[in-house]
Amino acid sequence: MNYRRLGRSGLKVSELSLGSWVTYGGQVDEDTSLRCIRQAFDLGVNYFDCADMYAEGKAEQVLGKAIRGVPRNELVISTKLFWPAMKGPNGRGLSRKHIIESIEGSLRRLGLDHVDLYFCHRFDPEVPLEETVRTMSQLVDQGKVLYWGTSEWHADQIASAFDAAHELHCQPPSMEQPQYNLFRRRRVEYELARLAERYGIGLTTFSPLAFGVLTGKYGEGIPAGSRATVPGYEWMREESLSPGRIEKARRFTQLAMELGLPPAQLAIAWCLRSPLVSSVITGASRIEQVRENLGAAEVQSQLTPEVLARLDEIFAPPQREEA
To answer: Would you tell me the crossing angle of helices 287-294 and 30-42 to the nearest 10 degrees?
Structure first.
């Protein structure tokens, strides 16, 4: 396993990490979840990602159970807040009240006294940005959070957070967690690239397999037990399983076969090729998937200029002027 700095910070994270979205505490039984997390750690993963709303808090509980007994200094644990995770009108968002109550709940479920990374899961237009920045900075000062950041924020929103932090003499965000895969490139490669160069934020990207589409498993329909069948994820079928995307996934799968690679490894290795990326967050519902996904680090040498050109031909990357 290789380790990369989180942007210009001093923190090092495994270039491949393991996330909990949909799977742990929900789609996957607890025993399998624990074994997947522990297998990832045994293979060198030190960064594990979660959120307070994943499986209504159960994902944090499972992750906390899985890391019990592991030396704390060997782990980088992240969680997120924004989406409804509590009852009442203050049970969501980025207000001071919700941030403070959310971190306490997450620490309790994880069984930790601090998290390494704490993400604002979306931008909150209903809360003054200064309130959010000041509160997140105070959590850093208190030692409950070591680094705070954003997830799926636009570049101008992140820049505004830096401006607010400078004016308030507060800790600015250190990282952003965007979606990044062969279908979704523009924000990372153009919009966030300029931001990373200016402010030194690290990118911990998610969904390298485009919700599983790039594995090719949806080529003949929606298989039972896949994410697209999970209640509450109907949007995925509408957004990610269009005929055009499925056809591109078929061509991508054919290229992976020609290279003698599992499609998942090729898709993840493609994300790793970017120096902007500090860590690619992977997901796995089986031990075999953990091993296969983490093998992507070993196949980056196969991403020759010719292979990258063929991938660009399939996925038609956005032009710079679109940024």
So the answer is: 30
CB crowding 148-178: b at 16 or more within 10 Å, else e: bbbbbbbbebbebbbebbeeeebbbbbbbbb
Q: Which own/partner pairs from 178-181 qualify as long-range (CB within 8 Å, at least 24 positions apart)?
A: 178/151, 178/152, 178/203, 178/205, 178/206, 179/152, 179/205, 179/206, 179/207, 180/205, 180/206, 180/207, 180/208, 180/271, 180/274, 180/277, 180/280, 181/207, 181/208, 181/209, 181/210, 181/214, 181/267, 181/271
CATH code for 3-210+274-299?
3.20.20.100
Q: Where are the domains of the chain?
A: 3-210+274-299
Residue 120 and residue 79 in contact, taking contact as beta carbons nearer than 8 Å: no
**Band of residue 316 on the pLDDT scale cut at 50, 70, 90:** confident
Strand partners for 16: 280
Please tell me whether the overall predicted TM-score, pTM, comes out greater than 0.90 for this model: yes
180 catalytic? Reply is: no
Q: Choose, from 3, 24, 47, 54, the residue flagged as catalytic.
A: 54
